[in-house]
Specification:
GMP Synthetase, Chain A, domain 3, four-stranded mixed beta sheet, about 450 residues, alpha/beta, single chain, disordered N terminus
Length: about 450
């Protein structure tokens, strides 16, 4: 799927690379070459491709239809496959009630990943994704080219909730993924299941570009229909000069505060969609415009909310750990997988299910002059500010340090926190210094902070 950047000059140019891009059409090759040879193009650090045969593309369209109306017996078939094919699950104390089965975690996967890969998966077909996460357990996620392409099906569903029909959109560049990191694997590919449109994975770090202003000119030249990134990279977009407006913007990986979302909507005049996703499970939930929360995306992914003792919460408004069973990746069947993320799960009158109060990991409460505030309250407090990334720490004496990225009024931010915490809890605000692209937003050394 990928290659060492130092070797890329020894291979065929990407626009004739039929090994990574089977069935590459002249139209797709021309589009790809135009993006890669543009004078403002960034330095792409690697090579990647869809690796889908014509048969796999046909299968993807069949999968999309099946995902719209899944077999109601999917859970029974899924559990049978886990029991028969997955070494780790084979010796479980099996019960008819899924909630009686043991839970798993990222620690379990990172400790012995091969035990979770079914025996019927052909190792020669596997591709892998590395993910660092924020739990301290780096993980390599096994997958297949067809599984990676299924993301598009879920994105289609999510965008349809906002009145956007992806297949009807015209243009040469389908998606631009934007990062803003010290180092980032970047590449250009094509999407045979979306009218041969180009996929660009870019890094907005100026060091990757001919000159800083080239970033905006390249966006205007490529005109991506969808732009996706985390709040940090999307905030960087706001500082670039370009006139292009995508059909939609998808925000992933971190909490998207309302202040930043409002600025993005004002700039691009399109839906800005908060998407909760992870490499282990793919897209889990997304904003559907209803303001109920984040609506569950996958019909064959069961979501439980567990308390600290690992038991299902008693009421829908109780907040607990998001725990997953099922999923769209046959290489990594998740059975009561504790994500380390926390939310509550509610259902509307039409039976649609939403995650609310989703706010990262793990839950922390903060001491104030009047008692305690939990980290969800802090998120609500920070919502009006256009922060791209932040980290709040309370020391053992109650002092608060808020590291921030993004353009905001530090004086107003300090005043809001001081009013919330009261006297005796000094607030210090500084620029976020860490070079880590993923971090734990809420931390505390104050006694009792993790007991709430």
């Amino acid at each position: 799927m990928t290659m060492n950047p130092d070797q890329r000059h020894t291979e065929a140019a990407p626009w004739v690379d039929t090994e990574r891009l089977p069935g590459l059409t002249p139209r797709a090759a021309a589009r790809l070459r135009q993006c890669l040879e543009h004078p403002d193009a960034p330095r792409y650090t690697g090579r990647s491709g869809h690796r889908l045969t014509a048969q796999a593309v046909r299968q993807l369209h069949a999968d999309k239809a099946a995902m719209q109306q899944p077999d109601p017996r999917w859970m029974a078939a899924f559990l049978a496959r886990c029991r028969q094919q997955v070494p780790h699950y084979r010796h479980y104390p099996w019960h008819n009630d899924v909630s009686a089965l043991p839970t798993t975690s990222r620690h379990d996967l990172s400790h012995n990943l091969t035990d979770f890969v079914p025996d019927d998966i052909d190792p020669a077909q596997l591709i892998a994704y590395e993910t660092s996460g924020t739990t301290g357990h780096p993980l390599t996620v096994p997958s297949l080219p067809l599984v990676a392409a299924r993301y598009h099906c879920f994105h289609e569903r999510i965008l349809s909730w906002h009145g956007i029909d992806l297949q009807s959109l015209s243009g040469d560049t389908g998606v631009m993924l934007v990062g803003d990191q010290q180092r980032c694997f970047t590449y250009a590919s094509v999407l045979p299941y979306w009218d041969d449109k180009v996929l660009l994975k870019t890094n907005l770090n100026p060091a990757d570009w001919p000159e800083p202003s080239a970033r905006g000119r390249y966006i205007d030249a490529c005109k991506p229909l969808l732009m996706t990134g985390d709040p940090r990279s999307l905030s960087t977009l706001l500082n670039l000069e370009f006139s292009h407006r995508p059909a939609a913007v998808l925000s992933t990986s971190m909490t998207l505060l309302q202040g930043l979302k409002d600025r993005l909507v004002q700039r691009f005049q399109c839906p800005v969609i908060n998407l909760y996703s992870m490499n282990e499970a793919g897209p889990i939930a997304a904003d559907d415009g209803s303001e109920y929360g984040l609506r569950l995306v996958q019909a064959t992914l069961q979501v439980e909310i567990l308390d600290r003792q690992g038991k299902p919460v008693t009421t829908p408004t109780d907040r607990g750990e998001i725990t997953l069973t099922g999923g769209f990746n046959p290489c990594l069947p998740l059975l009561r997988y504790r994500t380390g993320d926390y939310a509550c799960l509610i259902e509307d009158a039409q039976g649609r299910r939403y995650l609310q109060q989703l706010d990262g990991r793990p839950p922390v409460r903060y001491k104030t002059a009047k008692g305690w505030l939990n980290n969800v309250d802090i998120t609500h407090l920070l919502q009006p500010f256009g922060l791209a990334q932040y980290q709040l720490h309370q020391d053992q004496h109650g002092g608060l340090t808020l590291g921030v990225r993004g353009n905001t009024d530090h004086t107003a931010l300090e005043r809001a926190l001081a009013n919330a915490f009261g006297t005796g809890f000094p607030v210090r605000i500084n620029h976020l210094q860490t070079k880590t692209d993923k971090l734990i937003q809420y931390t505390s050394h104050y006694p009792g902070a993790h007991n709430g």
